[in-house]
Amino acid sequence: MDRFSFLNAAHTEFFAQLYDQYLENPDSVEPSWRSFFQGFDFGMTTYNEESKVEQIANFASNNSDCSLVSDKLQKEFNVLKLIDGYRSRGHLFTKTNPVRERRASSPTLAIENFGLSSADLNTVFDAAKAIHIAPCTLKEIILHLDSIYCQHIGVEYMYIRNPEVKEWIQKKLGVNDNQPAFSTDEKKSILNKLNQAVSFENFLHTKYVGQKRFSLEGGESVIPALDALIEKAAEKGVEHFVMGMAHRGRLNVLANIFGKSTQDIFGEFDGKDYDQEYFDGDVKYHLGLTAEKVTKSGKNININLAPNPSHLETVGAVIEGITRAKQDRYFPNDFSKVLPIAVHGDAAIAGQGILYEIVQMAQLDGYKTGGTIHIVINNQVGFTTNYIDARSSKYCTDVAKVTLSPVLHVNADDAEAVVHAMSFALDYRMQFGRDVFIDLLGYRKYGHNEGDEPRFTQPVLYKLIAKHENPRDIYADKLLAAGVIDATYVKGLEVEYKSNLEVNLEESRKKDLTIITPFMQNEWQGFTRVSNDGMLEKFDTSYTKEGLTAVANAVCNLPSDKKFINKIQKLINDRKTMFFDTNKLDWGMAEHLAYGSLLQEGYDVRISGQDVERGTFSHRHAVVKVEDSEEEVTLINSLEGKKGKFNIFNSLLSEYGVLGFDYGYALANPNTLTIWEAQFGDFSNGAQIMIDQYISCGEDKWNNQNGIVLLLPHGYEGQGAEHSSARMERYLQLCARHNMYVADCTTPANFFHLLRRQMKTTFRKPLVVFTPKSLLRDPRCVSPIEDFTQGTFQETFDDETVNKAEVKTLVFCTGKFYYDIVAEREINGRNDVAVVRIEQLFPLPVEQLKAIVAKYPNADDYVWAQEEPKNMGAYSYMLMNFDLVKWRLASLKAYAAPAAGSYTRAKRRHADAIQMVFDKDLFR
């Protein structure tokens, strides 16, 4: 069957229709086909286990030398192979490169490679029906195929496994032979947007000589394409448009698609200070914008361009999270209403690994967004690196094949082809809810930025570019030749547009400050901004006993009509016992109570990460499985009076992409407690770019608040270098200017209050929590119900078990190490040692710590104790931020790795650090 796989893959409908036509009226089909089907009917019992098309193909294969398969019929099959060749490989022979010849591919689509010759050109073939036209000559078939597959749009799709999808694509491409057919008004609209794109870049190039702007020149046709996309998407019912892109063309898109005031853009070029003191802002080509747009047909659409850093493809994950949040919030049953658009660079989409993570999310329940339109502004070169050195794949878009997404390669000089391809992409996304890629093959006029000299590294290419007309002038000449416009039309458009820019430039220079418009301001109405003092205010996070009891009833009772494994039965029964009998609630129960209480109050909860449904350490069991069927049961969803929605998703094995997604989700939905949990805290380093460039500084750079919660399992239990430390020193180094919370709790109740505080404030800050591992089941790490029903989050815990007047050594620590120190103190009977817990490291509660120190009048030995090595953990942070006392350190020595691989060695070092707490002369 492999030899004839093209018959089944590409021509199912053609064979079926022709055979059905033969069955109804044998004389209605061509004689050679009639003879073939007669022989096929005679011998089809041999193939009764196969489909009709497989039977036909196999029969042809097995009888190719038989008189039943005439020469004419064999030629029909050869024409089908030719059609299949164009569909599979036509994209290799297109006219999609505007500035240089394509690399040669072999074999070509010459008819001789398919068992045909020039003698067959005038022969009429029924195989034409496979491309949805009437039987016609081979010459006419080739003309159709060349027009569809080998002009300014090349299409890759034959790897798609769903016949329905392939059939839809083939029919779609057959309309006008995949050629644009725009009205006069539509053509003028395309020209107008092209003029805006070209004129904008020319204006900036003249007024701000040498300044970086990452111009769109060479890819200007993306502007009319995006404009047409928004118009058509609105007609199809899309109400929100979420876009992410890197630098190239960003200012042009902001001005000519999103309607950003060019006065503000000019202010950014002039380097003015900002109108607000509490944030530092970012360079102009990193900024985002949200706007409301009314289409030509009167449809309202909310359009968003997400801000992003210079880490080019990170924003792709963020916009997927924003999109999903908007879908969940506004259109929970219709993903089509929110459309994500990701604009890539060719070097970035091929070289940045996050793209693979993002596309692998595309159809997963917790992360799908109903299909993304990916647009590559393909410059054919990175910073200075030629494309042949930038990837091993044939195309920069080959990552699309991971999810069997179609790819359209388009000549960026042909504006109509680009708009036509965008229309196809939209229709595909709306039809199938899946990703689609457009590879917009163009060039960049000035190199990586406007101060760069591209001829250093691409002299031949830039000689060609220097002589090349811009897409507007190319298109204007085409319309002029067709009589659509006259010779003065384009000049009039240009003069009008540039006059408006001149006015705005003059007005801009009258202003002293640059105004930055917040991103997604509608979603953030009612929220305030606060300083460190505001973050340290107390918020009532207590909850009623009745409410907590309702939550406990939900998470402590399995459905009686379903069968669960014995261990699950025991675990859930133990939950019930701790709440209703012993009044000793552990960490997992505290989590459930926090989530349930927020759900009752109308907040949503979203948790994602690797294995979060059960929890890496089997403490959560938010989702339990029915033993026989593996049916999933989310116990908290049975909570009576639940007003919010609870969603928990095991993620793909990704940190970078998933954390980016969840950051975006929290950015668009501040009333959802959005949590990302690392499988081990150490693994968060796989998402370090998201942490460094978004989470820690997004508010400072872009005016964006965000309430994302990071749960990072942390603790030294002898599990080696990669399963001990969540690298708290790195997070603390990022802390400044009221940018985020960092906590390391020691009691379940305090963790409960911490999570609730995220939603109960009038502001949002990222929260990093170093969560325990061994303490999840430690009988010392429990809290009574009373600690949940009263009080609030405690930034510090003083030692209430000692006589403060007797204390000589005052120990400060955080997290699990507290329990280790206290256990040793009990063994040694050291009543002269007090242990103070710092539950919140940032903002550091300095005044609380000062007050605690003042309670110990006879203390003269102040210890910072940590289980991490000296060069890690919070030691350096405390030295820098709390200088009221002179610290003595009790910790491991400085090491390159966080922990030893040997369990014996790790435990010995850990014991040594504990001993240093009680013996100031030890290991000096």
Proportion of strand residues: 5-15%
**Helix- and strand-based class?**
alpha/beta
Tell me the radius of gyration: 33 Å
- Tell me the number of helical segments per DSSP (H or I, 4 or more residues long): 33
Largest sheet: 8 strands, mixed
Low-confidence stretches: 1-10
What percentage of residues falls in helices of 4 or more residues? 40-55%
How many β-strand runs?
26
Major β-sheet strand ordering: 3-10-11-9-8-4-7-6
Which outline best applies? globular
Spatial gap, N to C terminus: 78 Å
What value does the average pLDDT take?
92
Question: What would you note in describing this structure?
Answer:
- With 924 residues, the protein is an alpha/beta fold.
- It is built from 33 helices and 26 strands.
- The strands form 6 sheets. The protein has an 8-stranded mixed sheet with strand order 3-10-11-9-8-4-7-6, with helices on both faces. It has a 7-stranded mixed sheet with strand order 16-13-17-18-20-19-24, with helices on both faces. A 5-stranded mixed sheet has the order 21-23-22-25-26, with helices on both faces.
- The chain starts with a helix and ends in a 6-residue tail after the last helix.
- Residues 1-10 have low confidence and may be disordered.
